[in-house]
Design brief:
It is built from 13 helices and 20 strands. β15 and β16 form a beta hairpin. The structure holds flavin-adenine dinucleotide and 3,4-dihydroxybenzoic acid (DHB). Flavin-adenine dinucleotide binds next to α1 and α9. It comes from Thioclava dalianensis.
Length: about 400
């Protein structure tokens, strides 16, 4: 087989890239290790920057998000019983959109299927060959059959545990990592959200986040120990702990109910440099991970897709390789800013096992400063709604 771009990974980055390329007549084949239902079953991000929303419009997949997405023009931050609001719209002129990653992926699959896009599911043993030559190719197995695709370029959109990053020789890449000493226990419940905006809560018992997917679907998270297992937490125990971490007037509004999903995610900051090796480009979680605080994971994956899509569009449209050659530099410049924001916002809101009384005073002072200082709020809001591409 032959195509222009082989895309490894059918998560949000791979699908968005494939759909955007399709709008410009650039052909791709997506290789996904799992089934479509498996990919759609993963509950992950929920807040989309305006830049990702714009890209969905450009990709022709925005009908549902335009109709059903929840525009949010601010967020609440609490510490103990204190709380304040950051007004994104007033500070930056932008909003974010609350719309689940599951729905983004569903819309993209529907569009790829409608366009007759090539997606191979259940692929095994994907291998990248000759990425540093002018004739790269990818091999993989479906059942007992081994297949080969020759291509111009390869997009590694296969997440943190994929094969693409490993295809860059160790002598050519550097990795930077910070592992956090706690996780997030998240639940989804068919209950109305406690508040019409998200609540990021710093409390003496640890972080909590009240989020949502729609008017009758809430997403809540609490900081937990890395040794905890989701089955250790009954729904009652979860709700009780959440109530101890958010301001008391919100507790009164909280509607509880059975969880329909419960999972624990570890927190990690990770970046690999460069994000490019010959004709192989890394996109999204394949190249970098952020702790979820501030919802930058999916959004940073989307900014990589933006740079790569524009680079490939330029190449196939004009023959210029300028965008292709600067992909890694441009993508990393924005990635590191998202890493900084996610690390800062995580540090501001969590309890750390080795935190001293002084460290806690510093957190409270920083929260009080953020509460009262417009310049600090503007910096937070600009990062939250998404830095320019
Ligand atoms: P992925 O979504 O990981 O997609 C990669 C795809 O590649 C997967 O479908 C995988 O099956 C496939 N794949 C892997 N290896 C291979 C292979 N060898 N061959 C073929 N296919 C392969 N972000 C937020 O902003 N907010 C959140 O609340 C949040 N929660 C998260 C919870 C968890 C448990 C995780 C893991 C991530 C979370 N994130 C969150 C991050 C966000 O979901 C990711 O940044 C986003 O999914 C990145 O998209 P991606 O397409 O780059 O990678
Ligand atoms: C969600 C997750 C986040 O990490 C965040 O900062 C905001 C919202 C969510 O899943 O809804």
């Amino acid at each position: 087989m032959k195509t222009q771009i082989v895309i490894i990974g059918g998560g949000p980055s791979g699908l968005l890239l494939s759909q955007l390329l399709h709008t410009r007549g650039i052909e791709s084949i997506v290789l996904e290790r799992k089934t479509k239902d498996y990919v759609l079953g993963r509950i992950r991000a929920g807040v989309l920057e305006h830049g990702l929303h714009e890209m969905m419009r450009e990709a022709g997949v925005s009908d549902r998000i335009d109709a059903e997405g929840l525009p949010h023009d601010g967020t609440m931050i609490s510490y103990g019983d204190e709380r304040f609001r950051i007004d994104f719209e007033a500070l930056t002129g932008h909003k974010v959109m609350v719309y689940g990653q599951t729905e983004v992926t569903r819309d993209l699959y529907a569009a790829r299927e409608k366009a007759g896009g090539a997606i191979e599911f259940n692929v095994e043993d994907v291998q990248i060959h000759d990425a540093d030559s002018d004739a790269p190719y990818v091999t993989y197995r479906v059942g007992d059959e081994r297949r080969r695709i020759d291509c111009d370029y390869i997009a590694g959109c296969d997440g943190f545990h994929g094969v693409s990053r490993q295809a860059i020789p160790l002598s050519k890449r550097r990795e930077f990592e910070k592992v956090y000493p706690f996780g997030w226990l998240g639940i989804l419940s068919e209950t109305p959200p406690v508040h019409h905006e998200l609540i990021y809560a710093n409390s003496p018992r640890g972080f909590a986040l009240c989020s949502m997917r729609n008017a009758n679907l809430s997403r809540y998270y609490i900081q937990c120990s890395l040794s905890d297992k989701p089955e250790d937490w009954t729904d009652d125990a979860f709700w009780m702990e959440l109530k101890r971490r958010i301001p008391s007037d919100f507790v009164k509004e909280l509607v509880t109910g059975p969880s329909i999903e419960k999972s624990i995610a570890p927190l990690r900051s990770f970046v690999t440099e460069p994000m490019q090796y010959g004709r192989l480009f890394l996109c999204g979680d394949a190249a970098h991970i952020v702790p979820p605080t501030g919802a930058k994971g999916l959004n940073t994956a989307a900014s990589d897709v933006y740079y790569l899509y524009h680079a490939l569009r330029e190449f196939y449209g004009t023959g210029s390789k300028a965008g292709i050659e600067s992909y890694s530099t441009k993508a990393l410049a924005r990635v590191w800013k998202a890493e900084r924001f996610s690390w800062w916002f995580s540090s501001l809101l969590h309890r750390y096992p080795d935190q001293s009384e002084f460290d806690i005073k510093m957190q409270v002072a920083e929260l009080a400063f953020l509460r009262s200082n417009e310049a600090a709020q503007k910096a937070m809001a600009e990062n939250y709604v998404g830095l320019p591409y």
